[in-house]
Amino acid sequence: MKTLIEPFKIKSIEEIxxxxxxxxxKLLNEADLNPFTLRSSxxxxxxxxxxxxxxxxxxQWAALMDGDESYAGSRSYFKFEDKVRELTGFKHIIPVHQxxxxxxxxxxxxxxxxxTVPNNTHFDTTRGNIEFNEANAVDIPCPEGVRxxxxxxxxxNMDLDSLRNVIKEVGTENIPVVMMTITNNSGGGQPVxxxxxxxxxxxxxxxxxxxxxxxxxxxxxxxxxxxxxxxYADKSVMEITNEMFSYADGCTMSAKKDxxxxxxxxxxxxxxxxxxxxxxxxxxxxxxxxxxxxARRDLEALAVGFDEVMKEEYLSYRLGQVxxxxxxxxxxxxxxxxxxxxxxxxxxxxxxAPHIKPENFPGQSISCEIxxxxxxxxxxxxxxxxxxxxxxxxxxxxxxxxxxxxxxxxVYTKSHIDYVAEAIIEVYNNREKLRPMExxxxxxxxxxxxxxxxxxx
Length: 457
Ligand code: F0G
Hints:
Elements: H1 21-30, E1 45-46, H2 58-65, H3 75-88, E2 92-96, H4 99-109, E3 116-119, H5 124-132, E4 136-139, H6 160-170, E5 178-181, H7 194-206, E6 211-214, H8 218-228, H9 237-246, E7 250-254, E8 265-269, H10 272-285, H11 296-308, H12 312-331, E9 344-348, H13 349-352, H14 362-374, E10 376-377, E11 379-381, H15 383-386, E12 388-389, E13 395-396, E14 402-406, H16 414-429, E15 437-441, E16 452-455
Parallel strand pairs: 1-10, 3-4, 5-6, 6-7
Antiparallel strand pairs: 2-8, 7-8, 9-14, 11-14, 12-13, 15-16
Helix pairs in contact: 1-14, 2-11, 3-11, 4-5, 4-10, 8-9, 12-16, 14-16
């Protein structure tokens, strides 16, 4: 059988709001043309993020009831720790409430001030945590990774020559850690090959630098390796996962993604000293090391989630659902980042709305119009999120202007996906009506969350 089906049936449902175009137009204007600030009660299909938006399984809900809410030494922690160790092999496993808490701890204990952190592409909170500590976050994606139109198997890879060059330029003493994000979220949810992980780790280790994975979507990355990289087709997802982590000295994880739960994360490492320092920061800012800012029942849900995410039926459905949406858009001629990645589709806003200059935020304009006609929420990943100004006030945009439709795990059915495709295609067919925009207010850090916009034509 070739038909893609959800490998689960639905036990409990949640109604979704369906508003009129007039209602949505009014709400969007009241939200200053920033879908981020809309209430979820006005969203029909929410593709803002795949983070913490997972539908948990009946087994996870049952596990929640079994949570041991002891402050110290909770048995729920040990279940979680065993599972994470089975996946990663790391010696020290420290729970945190979400991924950015792991990042905050890492960049605090590594004393990064004034130094440089290379990464294939930093996610915005990773960059935020590095810059907040007065360090420099450098993105070194492979060249095809910033070309939406090039089809390649591992567009999430790091450019290893650039890594060597950065190390040579700034000196090993000025690099506290080499990071690798799997999958490469800001680069389109694109996978990183085992060869690239191995290569980056070797360069780091040859220079006596620690190598850490930002591993939010490790299972999706492992399944891409199984499908695409020579020599891995017959390996299990667990074997591939173990090998990926074997090259790293530690990792930061937002378990709101491949933990298949609504909250949680961890920082893990082999180094005893670093772990001690991390636990001290954890106790001051998150909680005791056997719960790290989470309810202990959340650790139970994660322990089950880590089992479920490794199932091949799940991963083939997951990546298949993203591809299904991508294929429908390709068929209609919509420009998007190809091949489709692991957790969503990314429209190529430059090609979608070429009449809008990057400084007038084509991606934001597309995202607003899709919400207005359909109630689907997406997020701009382009000049709004990463744009800067030079000393003369000229716009400096990122390499790509994208609009991400992140697909929550196990939440939407095939007919929901058909509806999303229809909305995107309708806006694409009327693309000349999309209007340029300007920011009227912005916050100093991570401006995309709260910025206000107006149309400028
Ligand atoms: N690293 C990556 C690659 C991420 O995608 C995220 C979150 C984080 C770190 C931070 O984790 O949210 O648990 O603190 N990404 C979400 C997204 C928010 O929508 O892509 P967090």
